[in-house]
Design goal:
alpha+beta; two-stranded antiparallel ribbon; globular; transferase; nucleotide-binding; kinase; serine/threonine-protein kinase; NEK_Ser/Thr_kinase
Amino acid sequence: AWQEGGHFYIQMDYCEGGSLAQRAHSCMSDEQLWAAACQSARGLRFLHSHGVLHLDVKPENIYLAAGTWRIGDFGLA
C-alpha cells in the first residue's frame, strides 16, 4: 500500500484460482472447504493482531493463489 498525490493505493497479487464462492459451488470437497476456512481464520487472526479489521469477510472476498487462500477486497478496512 502507498499514498501518492493525495490518493491511497493497495496492490494485490492476481489470484488465478478464483474466489471461494466460485469454487465452493463447483469443485471442492469437504476437506478442501475445511482447509479454506482454516487458512482464512489464520489470516483474520493475523490481521486482527495487527489492528486491522476487514469488515466484509465473505466467500466472494477469499481468493486462491498458488495453493493458498488469501483474504482480499479490503475496501476501507
